[in-house]
Amino acid sequence: MAFHSVLLVFFAGLVFLSEAAPLVSHGSVDSKCPLMVKVLDAVRGSPAANVAVKVFKKAAGGNWQDFATGKTTEFGEIHELTTDEQFVEGVYRIEFDTSSYWKGLGLSPFHEYADVVFTANDSGHRHYTIAALLSPFSYSTTAVVSNPQE
User: How far apart are CA 21 and CA 144, in angstroms?
Assistant: First the structure.
């Protein structure tokens, strides 16, 4: 039984990584989007639609300030959360409302939300794709960081 669980996680990871390709969104290049979010449902093996996402930026005093919000599309993605001009060097936190997502599917999740905290643009301007793989009792995140394409 443990082998099957490990195998399932392995295959979910493969799907997750193959779905999190940078800067390509269903046949079109998304080169002007400095921050893109992608969410996948590991239980159903599909994009997680209608997941509420909040982005915060850490202020000089250490508190978190609202930065952007959105909901994932039918493809589990959010584009155009911010612009190149607004997405400056700093520490950011992305919060995924996993509880509402799972409750909407009739499941009782362990986590209220999943989050990822990261430093952006500290080595020059970059584009970020933050991907989350969700299940009711766990989550995993990864990032694809690339130079902007003109």
Answer: 8
